[in-house]
Design goal:
By secondary structure, the chain is of the alpha/beta class. It folds into two domains: 1-27 and 302-451, no CATH class; 45-298, no CATH class. It is 50% helix and 9% strand. The protein is globular. The two termini are 48 Å apart.
């Protein structure tokens, strides 16, 4: 399932602004809202991602000959609201070609239960999404290739049925003679619906697949490699690549840690090119992941240097970002938009929140956003955002302000990590440059204790 982006159009009246600044809707590169920030993210360049995937960063050709047994596993780590999903949509679009990958995007919030999720659920969902894409193009594959994996799935389903011991609770009709993509979709859909809709059944399914995981991974790897050969023969793509997005939307840190850290050994057993998004709170554990994969940090856009000098190129890109969504005629003057951008701190999502709050105070009868509306929106947002900033947090923010004034770096600390997760502090470049969220700086609490 994907969001219908046709409902999201440039606002030409104040009544349309709220819909145009929705920050929970991922924008694809072919949409009028899309803005490419890839060249204004400081030390980050998207060529890092292409090189990690063994893809030429200009021609987008995958070097399959040099990487026959080398499957790339990449974790794209970044703060909430930095634009990872839109960046991945752009990357997938460029890589999805006959000389590169057959890209399959798996948005976890579209297909799984964010309140109860394990890696086994994700893997089944990945296969379902793959089968869906193959059915769309009617990929012609030797029936023996399909039969081998389908028979294995059928045996696992029988085990689950036996475990549940409930008539009609998990019945599947298995087309053993000639399995098709449609047959696979029937199995994975039934598995997924029980995983997301019945906790008791979900645990039995997970237990069955976990206990058979070594064999499961071998079956998947065998299947993927066989299909890769077919894709090359039919000049569709060189190999399959999965993009697994939405982990940060799961309900708790424990769920995310269990999936990425505790299941790391299982993740690396699946031999297929894959990009995962890595939630910000798991970044301190990235060292464990780098033993078998690559972790790339995806920062906010740097709109100020450490000495507070404004990066004009980044400001211009954000102006494009705003005017793609809101008609310029709705603002009293360009300076109002520039001021909103500076308060956004280089975060596309934070800027959209600021515009949303600003619009609350704008007069619909006048049909224009004034600087005073922005000021009121900022004050409201600042009060709400700083409501739970503790005295200990404020002491750290004072340290950060003084360190930036002296051009000093801040060493890692779990307390800093907590401030990053709360978006009280924003991070740039490769993580060595941090600034206080400009909205927080406007709160009376910050002004009183930090200055």
């Amino acid at each position: 399932m994907s969001t219908d982006l046709s409902f999201y159009k440039k606002a030409k009246t104040l009544a349309e602004v709220d819909n145009a600044v929705r920050f929970d809707v991922p924008i694809t590169p072919d949409h009028e809202f899309y803005t490419d920030f890839s060249d204004v993210r400081g030390d980050f360049e998207d060529r890092m991602i292409y090189k990690t995937l063994n893809v030429h960063p200009k021609t987008f050709i995958f070097n399959q000959e040099a990487n026959r047994v080398n499957k790339a596993l990449l974790f794209l780590a970044g703060m909430r609201g930095s634009g990872k999903t839109s960046e991945l949509a752009k990357i997938s679009q460029k890589l999805h070609n006959k000389d590169c990958f057959f890209c399959v995007t798996c948005n976890l919030d579209d297909g799984l239960d964010l309140n109860d999720m394990e890696y086994m659920d994700i893997l089944i969902f990945q296969l379902e999404r793959l089968f869906q894409e193959f059915e769309k193009i009617n990929l012609d594959v030797d029936k023996d290739i399909l039969a081998s994996l389908f028979d294995w799935f059928s045996e696992r389903v029988k085990e689950v049925n036996k475990s549940i011991k409930k008539e009609g609770g998990f019945e599947l009709e298995v087309e053993a003679k000639s399995p098709s993509w449609f047959s696979f979709l029937g199995v994975t859909a039934k598995l997924k619906s029980n995983i997301t809709g019945n906790k008791e059944n979900a645990e039995k399914i997970r237990t069955t697949f976990r206990s058979n995981f070594t064999e499961f991974s071998l079956k998947i790897n065998e299947f993927i490699e066989a299909v890769n050969i077919v894709l090359r023969k039919q000049t569709i793509a060189k190999e399959i690549m999965f993009v697994v997005d939405g982990l940060e939307k799961t309900a708790t840190t424990d769920i995310r840690k269990k999936i990425i850290i505790d299941e790391a050994d299982r993740i690396r057993q699946i031999k297929v090119n894959t990009i995962f998004t890595l939630p910000i709170e798991l970044m301190p554990m990235a060292q464990k992941l780098t033993q078998f994969c690559t972790v790339v940090s995806f920062p906010f856009v740097k709109i100020r240097e450490k000495d507070s000098a404004i990066v004009e190129e980044a400001i211009k890109r954000f102006e494009e970002f705003v005017y793609r969504r809101i008609d310029a005629s709705l603002f009293d003057k360009p300076e109002t938009v520039r001021k909103a951008i500076l308060y956004g701190g280089g975060s596309p999502r934070e800027l959209l929140r600021i515009l949303e709050y600003t619009n609350m105070y704008a007069d619909e009868d006048v049909n224009k956003i004034f600087a005073k509306d922005l000021d009121r929106g900022i004050q409201k947002l600042a009060a709400q955002t700083s409501q739970y900033v503790s005295a200990e947090d404020l002491a750290l923010l004072k340290i950060l302000k003084e360190a930036n004034a002296k051009g000093q770096y801040i060493p890692f600390d779990e307390k800093w990590q907590d401030l990053l997760e709360k978006l009280i502090v924003l991070e740039y470049n490769d993580g060595t440059y941090k600034r206080v969220n400009p909205v927080i700086e406007e709160s009376p609490l910050y002004k009183q204790h930090v200055g």
